[in-house]
Amino acid sequence: IVDAARARLVATGRPPGGRDATAVLVGTDLATLLVDTWTARCFGDGAPPWRDFLAQQVNTGHLPPRADLARAATRWSARVGPDRVVVVLGPARLPRQVGVRRELPARPALAAHATELARHVGPALGLLVTPPRAAQLLTEVLLPRLAPAPGERLVVPVGRMRWLRRQAQRQQRALSAGGYAVLGHPDLLLPRGHPGVAEPSEPSVLDLALRMLLSGPATASEIPGEQR
Q1: For the CA atoms of the chain, what is the radius of gyration?
Q2: Quick one: CA dihedral 107, 108, 109, 113, positive or negative?
Q3: How many helical (H) and strand (E) elements, i.e. helices and strands, does the chain have?
Q4: Chain segment 134-180, per-residue pLDDT in tens
């Protein structure tokens, strides 16, 4: 959720950190956070198939770290103190919290099969370049090319919603007892049904991969660090 917003802030001369800085944690409903967590792993250090990823979380009984706001808030409270931690529920509240008037850019709304294609590309790319370089190419080259692909977004299957609601209620209790500021109603954490598909379509993944190959390679100007 925050990657695009952070990049805009840095570009306008407002980098994170500094003396007495406040740790701002941004979250939304847990269904969206879970999809975003899996998506981030597909463009990062790798991820299992979506259904396997969900099954892992249910079996462990915990949310993954990227989606666990309460755990992150506790960790930051131990580092900087609860008075310098703010949990923002709902990205729309973020601009005012970080002192800007304009709306900050939102995360890319990727189609389910586009994210699945990135999940397949990542391991192959990792055999050719170092992990940091692979992550850079996935997020700065592949992601912009996948973002325009039409298609429905990935959603949490209905069968996992009861488990996710219980996790959201645990998050609500932990955040209310943490001693730090929480902006936004706690019910914003409750998973909500969104239009989309519960699993990527493999034929759609193959179709997108072929269309990208036929469109030609990225130019040198599109690839960070390439000789021009």
Answers
A1: 19
A2: negative
A3: 10, 3
A4: 989 999 999 999 999 999 999 999 999 999 999 999 999 999 998 99
